[in-house]
C-alpha cells in the first residue's frame, strides 16, 4: 500500500470513530431524556465528592463517589477518557472496560470506580453524576510512570579556561509526567525549570546551567542536576553530578614573608602555588646567588647548615603556560641563638623566714638576649636577678631563667628553690561556726620541710592556759591527718558539739627547726528548737507586759473621768474646806455680798463672767470659781513674791503658794507642813 493510500485509510478510520462517538453521545442523551420524563427527580447531592488521585502504573486506582437522596429509580453514571465516554450505568460496567468495576454499598449511595492494573490509557478526566445534580464533579486520574534513568549532563567532559563562558545542559527523556529539573551547587540552588514549562505535551525536558565568566574558584565545584516528578510517595528523585574543570594561571603565596633562623640550622623556604594545570617552580636570590648546597624540592628551596651569607631576599617563580606567571618573595634572616652561661646549681636552698635571697642569670647571643625569670608552669615573669625580700614556703618550686632575642628559640635553664625551716600553718579559715549537735571540723594546713615531728591540738582556757585536746576527754573527739609533698593537713573532729565546746583551740606543730602555733575560734550556735522556745517565751512576756500597762492606763483614765462627771453634776460649788474672803475688788460698792455677779452667754449656757485679772495671784480665781481655775503643770517654775517680804525667787519643783492637784486648792494660810502632807496624799492617791 502506498503512503497516500495508508493516509486515506487512517482518515476513514478516524472518521468512523468520531461517528461512533457521536452516536454514543446521542444515545446517552436520549436515555437521559426518557428517564427525566418517566422518573420523578428528587434533590440529590454528593455525600463523598470525587477527588483527583495519582497512582503508579500497574497499581489499582479507586475513585470514590457517594450520594445523598438517591431513589430506586436513580441511575449513577461514571464517565472517563477518552472524551468522558460512559464507563458504567448504575453498577453495570461497559464490557469494553474489563479492568473496571463499581464497588461500595448501594444502600449508602456508594458508587466507587475501581481500576486494576492502571496504565497510561486510563489517565485523564473522570465524572460521577446522576439526575438531579446541579453540579457535576470532574476529577483527574494521574498515572505516574517513574523515570528509568537519571538525567544526562552534556558538556561535563569539557575543560573551561578562566574568564571564559561555560554552559552545561541537563536533559530527561522518560517518565510520566516528565520531571522538573534543577541545578544545585551543594545545597545552593543555581537554576530551575520554570513553572509553566511543562504545560505543553513534549517527549523530553532540558535545563541549561550558564556561567558567563568562570573563575579559578569555580574549579572543583560539584554541580548536580536533580530531576523530580513531583510525587514523592510514588517516585524518587534522580540526579546526575559533574565536577567543573577550570584552567587558570598560577597564584603564588609565601607561607611566611620573613623567616628567622639560627646559624647552623637546616631550613626550607617554601611557597604555595595554586594553578591548574600544575606549574613548574624555580627560585632566584636577589642581590646575590643561591648557596651552592641548596636544593629545589617541589615548591621548596632546601638550605642545609645555614651560614650568615645565606641571609637575603628570595623569589619563588611559577609558570604553567597560562599568562600571567606567578611570583612570590621571602626574606631570610640568620640569627645567633642565646646561650645561658651562668653556673648556678640545679637546686638552691633557702631558709624560711630569711631575708635577702638573690639568684643571678647570665646569657650571650645575637641580638642581645633579654633575661628574665619565671615560675615553671606559669606566665609570671620576674626581673633578673631573681630576688626575694622575705622567704616563705609559698616561694618553693621550680624557677626558669629564660633568655630570648626576638622570634628565635629561647634558652632556658631551670633550678629548684628548696625552702626549709620551721613549720608554718597556712589555714585561711580560722573561725568556725557550728550548730549545737552537729560535727565540727578544725582544719590545720601545715607547710613544713622537713615534715613535722609532732602536731597536737590545745584548748585555751582562762588565763591563757592551754590544755591538750585528746580523745580521753570525752567521746567523739579524734584527729585526722593527711600527708602531701608540701606538708601535713591535720584535722580536729568534734562530734555532737555542745555549748561547752565553744572557745579557742590552738594547732601546734613542731619540726627540727622549731614550733609554730595558730589559734582557731569555734562558735557554737543554739539549734532551731532552742531559738523557737526562746522566741516564744519572749513574745509571751512582752504580751503580759503590754496588757498590764494597758489595764493601768484604763483604770487611771476611768477614775479621772468619773471625778470630772461628779464635779459637773454637783448642785453647788462647795469646797471641802472654808473659802477665804472674797477680794475687795470683786465686791460691788455699797454691797456686802456677791449676788450681783455679771452673767454671760457661753455656747448657749449662762455662766458667770470671770472677774478681771488685776493681780498675779491666780488662787483667788480658783477659790471663787474652781471650774475656771487652770491647774498649773507639775514641776513648773513660777516666780512669786513671798508673804514675809523676801526677795523674788524661783521655786522648784513644788509651788509653795498657791498649790492645786485633782481639784484641791491650798490657800497660803495653810502651814508648809500641812501643804506637804497634802501633796504626798494627792500623789499617793494618783
Explain what the structure shows.
The chain has 4 helices and 49 strands. The longest helix is centred in the C-terminal third of the chain and has 42 residues, at 528-569. It is mainly beta and 686 residues long. Strands 28, 31, 32, 34, 35, 37, 40 and 41 form an 8-stranded mixed sheet that branches. Strands 2-11-10-5-6-7 form a 6-stranded mixed sheet, covered by helices on one side. It has a 5-stranded mixed sheet with strand order 13-20-22-25-24, with no helix packed on it. It is flat. The relative contact order is 0.05. It is 14% helix and 41% strand. The protein has 7 domains: 12-144, Immunoglobulins (Immunoglobulin-like); 152-244, Immunoglobulins (Immunoglobulin-like); 248-337, Immunoglobulin-like (Sandwich), CATH 2.60.40.10; 341-422, Immunoglobulin-like (Sandwich); 426-525, Immunoglobulins (Immunoglobulin-like); 529-563; 618-686, no CATH class. Residues 1-7, 37-41, 570-579, 584-607 and 613-686 have low confidence and may be disordered. InterPro entries: CD80_C2-set (IPR013162), Cell_adhesion_signaling (IPR051275), Ig-like_dom (IPR007110), Ig-like_dom_sf (IPR036179), Ig-like_fold (IPR013783), Ig_sub (IPR003599), Ig_sub2 (IPR003598), Ig_V-set (IPR013106). Residues 459-486 are annotated as: Disordered. Residues 36-140, 151-241, 250-331, 338-417, 423-521 form the Ig-like domain.
Amino acid at each position: 500500500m502506498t503512503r497516500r493510500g495508508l493516509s486515506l485509510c487512517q482518515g476513514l478510520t478516524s472518521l468512523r470513530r468520531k461517528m461512533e462517538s457521536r452516536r454514543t453521545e446521542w444515545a446517552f442523551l436520549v436515555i437521559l431524556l426518557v428517564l427525566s420524563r418517566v422518573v420523578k427527580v428528587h434533590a440529590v447531592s454528593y455525600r463523598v465528592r470525587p477527588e483527583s488521585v495519582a497512582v503508579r502504573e500497574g497499581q489499582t486506582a479507586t475513585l470514590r463517589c457517594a450520594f445523598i437522596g438517591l431513589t430506586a429509580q436513580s441511575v449513577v453514571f461514571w464517565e472517563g477518557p477518552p472524551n468522558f465516554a460512559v464507563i458504567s450505568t448504575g453498577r453495570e460496567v461497559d464490557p469494553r472496560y474489563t479492568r473496571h468495576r463499581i464497588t461500595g454499598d448501594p444502600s449508602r449511595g456508594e458508587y466507587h470506580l475501581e481500576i486494576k492494573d492502571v496504565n497510561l490509557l486510563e489517565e485523564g478526566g473522570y465524572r460521577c453524576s446522576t439526575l438531579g445534580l446541579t453540579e457535576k464533579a470532574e476529577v483527574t486520574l494521574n498515572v505516574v510512570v517513574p523515570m528509568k534513568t537519571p538525567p544526562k549532563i552534556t558538556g561535563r567532559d569539557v575543560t573551561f579556561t578562566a574568564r571564559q563562558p561555560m554552559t552545561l545542559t541537563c536533559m530527561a527523556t522518560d517518565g510520566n509526567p516528565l520531571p522538573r529539573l534543577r541545578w544545585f551547587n551543594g545545597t545552593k540552588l543555581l537554576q530551575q525549570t520554570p513553572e509553566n514549562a511543562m504545560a505543553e505535551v513534549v517527549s523530553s525536558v532540558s535545563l541549561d546551567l550558564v556561567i558567563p565568566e568562570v573563575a579559578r574558584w569555580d574549579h572543583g565545584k560539584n554541580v548536580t542536576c536533580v530531576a523530580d516528578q513531583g510525587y514523592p510517595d510514588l517516585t524518587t528523585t534522580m540526579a546526575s553530578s559533574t565536577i567543573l574543570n577550570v584552567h587558570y594561571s598560577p597564584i603564588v603565596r609565601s607561607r611566611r614573608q620573613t623567616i628567622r633562623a639560627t646559624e647552623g640550622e637546616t631550613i626550607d623556604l617554601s611557597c604555595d602555588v595554586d594553578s591548574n594545570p600544575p606549574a613548574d617552580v624555580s627560585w632566584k636570590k636577589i642581590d646575590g646567588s643561591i648557596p651552592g648546597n641548596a636544593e629545589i624540592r617541589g615548591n621548596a628551596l632546601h638550605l642545609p647548615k645555614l651560614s650568615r651569607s645565606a641571609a637575603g631576599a628570595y623569589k619563588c617563580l611559577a609558570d604553567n603556560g597560562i599568562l600571567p606567571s606567578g611570583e612570590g618573595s621571602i626574606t631570610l634572616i640568620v640569627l645567633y641563638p642565646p646561650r645561658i652561661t651562668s653556673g648556678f646549681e640545679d637546686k638552691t636552698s633557702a631558709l624560711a623566714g630569711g631575708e635577702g635571697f638573690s639568684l643571678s642569670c647570665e646569657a650571650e647571643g645575637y641580638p642581645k638576649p633579654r633575661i628574665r625569670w619565671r615560675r615553671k608552669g606559669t606566665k609570671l615573669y620576674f626581673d633578673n636577678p631573681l630576688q626575694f625580700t622575705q622567704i616563705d614556703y609559698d616561694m618553693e618550686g621550680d624557677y626558669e631563667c629564660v633568655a630570648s632575642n626576638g622570634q628565635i628559640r629561647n634558652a632556658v635553664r631551670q633550678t629548684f628553690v628548696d625552702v626549709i625551716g620551721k613549720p608554718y600553718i597556712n589555714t585561711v579559715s580560722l573561725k568556725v561556726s557550728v550548730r549545737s549537735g552537729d560535727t565540727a571540723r578544725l582544719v590545720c594546713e601545715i607547710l613544713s620541710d622537713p615534715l613535722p615531728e609532732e602536731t597536737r591540738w590545745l584548748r585555751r582556757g582562762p588565763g591563757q592556759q592551754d590544755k591538750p585536746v585528746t580523745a580521753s576527754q570525752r567521746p567523739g573527739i579524734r584527729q585526722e591527718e593527711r600527708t602531701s609533698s608540701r606538708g601535713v593537713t591535720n584535722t580536729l573532729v568534734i562530734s555532737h558539739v555542745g555549748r561547752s565546746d565553744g572557745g579557742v583551740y590552738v594547732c601546734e606543730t613542731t619540726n627540727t627547726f622549731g614550733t609554730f602555733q595558730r589559734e582557731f575560734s569555734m562558735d557554737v550556735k543554739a539549734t532551731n528548737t532552742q531559738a523557737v522556745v526562746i522566741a516564744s517565751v519572749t513574745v509571751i512576756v512582752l504580751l503580759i507586759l503590754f496588757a498590764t500597762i494597758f489595764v493601768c492606763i484604763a483604770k487611771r483614765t476611768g477614775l479621772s473621768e468619773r471625778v470630772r462627771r461628779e464635779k459637773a453634776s454637783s448642785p453647788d460649788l462647795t469646797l471641802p474646806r472654808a473659802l477665804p474672803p472674797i477680794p475687795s475688788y470683786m465686791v460691788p460698792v455699797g454691797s456686802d455680798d456677791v449676788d450681783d455677779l455679771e452673767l454671760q452667754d457661753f455656747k448657749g449656757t449662762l455662766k458667770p463672767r470671770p472677774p478681771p485679772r488685776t493681780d498675779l495671784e491666780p488662787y483667788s480665781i480658783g477659790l471663787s470659781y474652781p471650774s475656771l481655775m487652770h491647774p498649773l503643770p507639775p514641776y513648773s517654775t513660777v516666780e512669786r513674791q513671798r508673804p514675809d517680804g523676801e526677795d523674788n525667787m524661783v521655786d522648784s519643783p513644788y509651788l509653795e503658794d498657791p498649790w492645786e492637784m485633782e481639784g484641791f486648792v491650798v490657800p497660803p494660810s495653810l502651814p508648809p507642813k500641812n501643804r506637804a502632807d497634802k501633796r504626798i496624799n494627792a500623789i499617793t492617791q494618783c
